[in-house]
C-alpha cells in the first residue's frame, strides 16, 4: 500500500466550491470537496471517473435528463466523459 499525500493546494473553480486534489491516475481522480448551501456546479465533463461519498448534507446530481439526490453516507459514481452538474440542496456544507 502506498501512503498518499494531497497533490495540490485548495482551488475554488466556482464561487462556493473548494476542492483539494488528493491523487489521480489515468482514469480516476480522488478529491476532497466542499460545496456551500445552494451553490451549483455547472455542467461539465472530464475523462476520469468520479466516485465519492457525501460526508455531510445532500447533493443533487444532474446527469442527462436524470436528477439523483445523494445524502450523507451515500455513495455516487459518474463514468468518465458523462456530462454532469451538481447542486448542494441542503442548508449545510456538503
Q: Spatial order of the strands in the main sheet?
A: 4-9-6-7
Let me know the number of strands: 9
Query: What is the beta-strand fraction?
Result: over 45%
Distance between the termini: 29 Å
Query: Shape, please?
Result: globular
Average residue pLDDT: 88
What order do the helices and strands follow? Answer: EEEEEEEEE
Q: Helical content, roughly? A: under 10%
Supply Rg. 13 Å
Largest sheet: 4 strands, antiparallel
What are the segments in which pLDDT stays under 50 over at least 5 consecutive residues? none
Structural classification: mainly beta
H/I helix tally: 0
What features would you describe in this structure?
- The chain is mainly β and 94 residues long.
- It is built from no helices and nine strands.
- The chain has strands at residues 11-14, 17-24, 29-35, 40-44, 50-53, 58-63, 66-71, 75-78, 84-88.
- The protein is globular and about 35 Å long.
What is the structure about, briefly put?
The chain has 94 residues and is mostly beta strands. The chain has strands at 11-14, 17-24, 29-35, 40-44, 50-53, 58-63, 66-71, 75-78, 84-88. It has no helices and nine strands.
Give the secondary structure arrangement, pairings included:
Layout: E1 11-14, E2 17-24, E3 29-35, E4 40-44, E5 50-53, E6 58-63, E7 66-71, E8 75-78, E9 84-88
Antiparallel strand pairs: 1-2, 2-3, 4-9, 5-8, 6-7, 6-9
Write a concise keyword list for the protein shown above:
94 residues; single chain; 4-stranded antiparallel sheet; mainly beta; 3-stranded antiparallel sheet
Amino acid at each position: 500500500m502506498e501512503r498518499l499525500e494531497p497533490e495540490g493546494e485548495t482551488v475554488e473553480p466556482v464561487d462556493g466550491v473548494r476542492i483539494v486534489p488528493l491523487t489521480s491516475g489515468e482514469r480516476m481522480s480522488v478529491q476532497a470537496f466542499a460545496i456551500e448551501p445552494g451553490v451549483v456546479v455547472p455542467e461539465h465533463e472530464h475523462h476520469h471517473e468520479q466516485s465519492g461519498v457525501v460526508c455531510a448534507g445532500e447533493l443533487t446530481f444532474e446527469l442527462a435528463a436524470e436528477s439523483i439526490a445523494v445524502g450523507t453516507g451515500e455513495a455516487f459514481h459518474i463514468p468518465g466523459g458523462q456530462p454532469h452538474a451538481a447542486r448542494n440542496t441542503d442548508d449545510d456544507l456538503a
